[in-house]
């Protein structure tokens, strides 16, 4: 016995459509945490050391904080305001 397939919806939800059409210039800031850690000049050296850790290790933590703060900032600037 074959089970009939449910009808597929003809339109996507409005939230997916609004996200797909978000062309905010703030989104360009999301390239910062991707490109900045790729610059080799930041890692070319041992000094300065912070708490005995070479530059490479504490820069890794800095890149994580840069990514989180940039993503949070872009989200806050691009989210839709609720109308009451």
UniProtKB/TrEMBL annotation:
The chain crosses the membrane at residues 26-43, 55-75. Keywords: Membrane, Transmembrane, Transmembrane helix. Residues 1-16 have a biased composition (Low complexity). Pfam families: DUF3311 (PF11755). Residues 1-21 are annotated as: Disordered. The keyword Disulfide bond does not apply. This is DUF3311 domain-containing protein. The lineage of its organism: Bacteria, Bacillati, Actinomycetota, Actinomycetes, Micromonosporales.
